[in-house]
């Protein structure tokens, strides 16, 4: 197979298309926003690996500051990649019930600070048994359902009962509570602060109840990109699980503090009146429920069809590009876009600065 990875120093025009790019100055700007926002604050950022999937890129935020030197991950497989990449503090934000995956997590806990979310006693006792058999300790946080309607306890009483049981078991260490929430549509600052605070306070109610029962709560892991500046102002929150902010997407464009850093470069194959055809399709661009990317600088151009490796676009007038022209696509669903690729091509001042592998892509197990 011919090596199509670009060379350091290549110009953007020399990069084979399609390719997934990172605009390095834009990414570093986003990391700087976080380091400045959390400077001097108790609350810190715990960047989410599901969005970036590259320890190299995530370490860049840790180096920039504003973090607790750890990350979170959606899957055990992602957590394994992060630890293998040198990051030694990982929180798995999804419940894990498969014995084989819990054994893998226990193995990981022997070399790293590993924490896991729980929402029921059966799973808690399962984790305790497997960790005890492996001779390790796994931290546990109680997930609180605040808005998603999926995993998580539904009341402070449930949280207290789980915390009490966790303190009685071997192989686990009760750490605290966590939650995840979302906001619909194009949220302005007032909406972000009002809704974000309302959701996070549901999580804090469980924390307060647990502390009221005499059990210390070390961690409150809550918040995400839309509450990156909300959570640090709420007493009791110790960390934010932000992910999208690092590379950004057009659907989060209301977060004006951040810049879009992830882009897909493609080549125009053909033009017919208002229609243009490009060499990128579902295999490298696809998102859930038909969510499609945007063309940088041309909001009037829309995707009308996405095939496996090509797409058809339409503009409101004559298509503004010629065959052979390069265009840049901006993601509407960042984590799924990143999962399509083996590497990022890091661009700085129009040239290739580095090629960073994405070793956690495809880590479904």
Describe, in plain words, how this protein is organized in 3D.
This protein is of the alpha/beta class. The protein folds into two domains: 12-19 and 257-357, D-serine dehydratase-like domain (Lyase, Ornithine Decarboxylase, Chain A, domain 1); 25-243, Alanine racemase (TIM Barrel), CATH 3.20.20. 29% of the residues lie in helices and 24% in strands. The model has no long low-confidence stretch (mean pLDDT 95).
- Beta-strand residue percentage: 15-25%
Task: Give the full name of the CATH homologous superfamily of the largest domain.
Answer: Alanine racemase
CATH topology of the largest domain: TIM Barrel
- Based on secondary structure, the structural category is alpha/beta
pLDDT < 50 runs, ≥5 residues:
none
Second-tier CATH architecture of the largest domain: Alpha-Beta Barrel
Largest sheet: 9 strands, mixed
Number of helices: 10
Number of domains: 2
Radius of gyration from the CA trace?
A: 22 Å
**Average pLDDT taken over every residue:** 95
Q: Sum up the overall morphology in one term.
A: elongated
Percent range of helical residues: 25-40%
Question: How does the SSE layout of this entry go?
Answer:
Elements: E1 19-23, H1 24-37, E2 44-48, H2 49-52, H3 55-64, E3 67-73, H4 76-84, E4 89-92, H5 99-108, E5 113-118, H6 121-134, E6 138-143, H7 156-168, E7 172-178, H8 189-212, E8 219-221, E9 239-240, E10 262-272, E11 275-278, H9 282-285, E12 294-295, E13 302-306, E14 311-314, E15 326-330, H10 334-338, E16 343-348, E17 351-357
Parallel strand pairs: 1-16, 2-3, 2-9, 3-4, 4-5, 5-6, 6-7, 7-8
Antiparallel strand pairs: 1-10, 10-11, 10-15, 11-14, 12-15, 13-14, 16-17
């Amino acid at each position: 197979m011919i090596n199509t990875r670009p060379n350091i120093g290549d110009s953007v025009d020399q990069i084979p298309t399609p390719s997934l790019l990172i605009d390095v100055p834009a990414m570093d700007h986003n990391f700087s926003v976080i380091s400045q926002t959390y400077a001097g604050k108790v609350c810190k950022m715990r960047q989410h690996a599901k969005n970036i999937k590259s320890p190299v890129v995530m370490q860049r935020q840790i180096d920039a500051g504003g973090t607790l030197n750890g990350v979170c991950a959606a899957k055990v497989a992602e957590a394994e990649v992060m630890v293998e990449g040198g990051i030694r503090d990982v929180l798995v934000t999804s419940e894990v019930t498969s014995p084989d995956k819990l054994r893998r997590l226990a193995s990981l806990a022997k070399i790293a600070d590993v924490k896991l979310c729980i929402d029921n006693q059966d799973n808690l006792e399962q984790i305790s048994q497997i960790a005890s058999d492996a001779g390790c300790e796994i931290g546990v946080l109680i997930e609180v359902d605040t808005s998603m309607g999926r995993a998580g306890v539904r009341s402070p009483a449930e949280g207290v009962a789980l915390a009490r049981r966790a303190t009685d078991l071997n192989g686990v260490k009760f750490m605290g509570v966590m939650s995840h929430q979302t906001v619909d549509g194009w949220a302005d600052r007032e909406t972000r602060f009002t809704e974000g605070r309302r959701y996070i306070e549901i999580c804090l109610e469980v924390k307060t109840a647990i502390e009221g029962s005499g059990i210390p709560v070390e961690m409150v892991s809550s918040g995400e990109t839309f509450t990156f500046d909300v959570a640090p102002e709420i007493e009791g929150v110790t960390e934010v699980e932000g992910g999208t902010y690092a590379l950004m997407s057009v659907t989060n464009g209301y977060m004006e503090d951040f810049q879009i850093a992830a882009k897909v470069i493609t080549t125009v194959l053909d033009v017919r009146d208002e229609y243009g055809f490009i060499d990128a399709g579902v295999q490298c661009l696809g998102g859930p429920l038909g969510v499609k990317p945007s063309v940088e600088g041309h909001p009037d151009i829309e995707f009308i069809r996405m095939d496996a490796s090509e797409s058809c676009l339409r503009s409101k007038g004559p298509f503004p590009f010629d065959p052979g022209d390069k265009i840049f696509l901006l993601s509407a669903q960042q984590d799924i876009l990143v999962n399509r690729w083996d590497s990022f091509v890091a661009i700085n001042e129009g040239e290739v600065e580095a090629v960073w592998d994405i070793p956690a892509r495809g880590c479904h197990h």
